[in-house]
Amino acid sequence: MTPTLEKEIIKLPSDQDISGRTFGAEEIRAVTEVLQSGVLITTKGKYGKLLEKEFAEKLGVKYAYACNSGSAAVHVAVAAINPNPGDEIVTTSVTDMGALTPIIFQGAIPVFADVDPKTLNVTAETIEAVLSERTKAIIVTHLFGNPCEMKAIMELADSRNIPVIEDTAQSFLAKCDGKYAGTIGKIGAFSFQQGKQMTTGEGGIVVTNDDDLARRMYLFINKAWGYGDANPDHYFASLNYRMTELQAAVSYEQLKKLDYSVAQRQKMAALLDEKIADIDGIESYKPAENSTMTYWKFCLRVDDAKIEDGSVGLAKALKVYDVASAPRYVVKPAYKCMIFRDQNTFGDSQYPFNLARPEAVDYNDARFRGTIKGLHDVLVLPINEKYTEQHIEFLADSIREAVEATRK
Question: How many domains, the chain?
Fold first, then answer.
């Protein structure tokens, strides 16, 4: 059944353009200053250094190093751990490919852990199920701005002496047990991609409190050249992952607005949650009792026993109101992508998968029941810091009418 339009369509702010972003005179001034200076490289400019200093202070960590994308941030983190070829890095079955290919490029084997179907986050239990003697690190992804339950994960990791990398691309200023996501494990990796809580289009940053890891991360971003060393050299194989001064200028000004952006997302999400709480057949994502969520997106679990065609049907119904949504979030779990399924890597070598244990590359769906269920149920809705109460009212009414139109 198609919903009947009973109200004026309101165009929701989009984080893909200025309607949903906080860019203003501050960013324009900073970018203009950089262009007028003619210094567009962070090794010689001021904004890269300012961004790193103030981001570290914001999170209460010793080190922060900017890079040119969120994917680069994960690569820098993995490279700092320095796996040997064939070592295993446990990661999630539900994440962006940019968080997975860095593992392969460092010669390690991504070993996928299942997720909690209610959050699409990995858990201590799903991680433990795939650990082995070859596990070099664990990457946890705080999906949608909702932190993983880090206390249990860190207890497990610490008991095995395995470092944890936090992929915090979607979860700026989210907290778990009073600590910022990204500061709990050994390394936090953040993304400044277009739709994140702060953005410079593309960009990223890595943080740590570990002196040795900080040194390796700094070097890996800079082609392993020891800037400032007494006898600098290119110490190991690495890339140029530096952020430009133009990106850094925008990021620096965006950082000043991060508290507002996060607080506004949380405020509007709480209001939306309140307005749809009584709708039978849908349930919003909730953070754990000891955590706060910072809403990269607003997610629903859709019960297909009550809603015709589940999340897909509800997404189609919402299109009538010009509400963009993503049923099932990603087309398929990461392990079903050709790069893993067919081991398409470097030429026809299948490296590093040719070094893998058979169990590490067992991609049978039966091992990923939480993944299958969670992706089947989820509907990802937009939210950003430019939403107002009027937008939330419209969105809540649209959801309510769409649910009723698709109810079995």
Answer: 2
Long-range Cβ contacts of 129-135 (<8 Å, 24+ apart) = 130/90, 130/360, 131/90, 131/160, 131/162, 132/88, 132/357, 132/359, 132/360, 134/86, 134/87, 134/88, 134/109, 134/357, 134/360, 135/87, 135/88, 135/89, 135/90, 135/111, 135/160, 135/162
Q: How far is CA 317 from the centre of its chain?
A: 28
* Nearest CA among 303, 292, 255, 268 for reference residue 381: 268
Q: What is the pLDDT of residues 292-314, one digit of tens each?
A: 999 999 999 999 999 999 999 99
Percent of the chain whose predicted confidence (pLDDT) is above 90: 96
Domain boundary among 257, 273, 291: 257
Asked whether residue 178 falls in the same domain as residue 272, the answer is no
pLDDT recorded at residue 235? 96
Which of the two residues, 79 and 9, has the higher pLDDT score? 79
Residue where the block lists tokens 């009550």? 306
Q: Is 282 helix (H, G, I), strand (E, B) or coil?
A: strand
- Domain ranges, residue 273: 258-330+372-406
Q: Which residue reads 């570290």 in tokens?
A: 56
- Lookup: tokens for 228: 């400032």
Q: Are residues 99 and 232 in the same domain?
A: yes
Residues 233 and 268 in one domain: no
| 45 and 59, same domain (yes or no) | yes
The two tokens of residue 355 are 């070094």
- Does a structural domain hold residue 365? no
Task: Give the pLDDT band (50/70/90) at residue 331.
Answer: confident
